[in-house]
Fold:
Amino acid sequence: MNILEKWYSVIKSDDLNDLNDLLAEDVVFYSPVVYTPQKAKK
Structure:
C-alpha cells in the first residue's frame, strides 16, 4: 500500500489515530482560519 492509499484509508475510517504514522515529525500545517502556522505533530 502506498502513502496515498494509506491516507485515503485513514480518512475513510474516521479513525485519525493512524494519522500520526503518516506525518513527518517536523510537519507544518497552514490553515486559512488560524493566523500562524502550526508546527510539528501534536
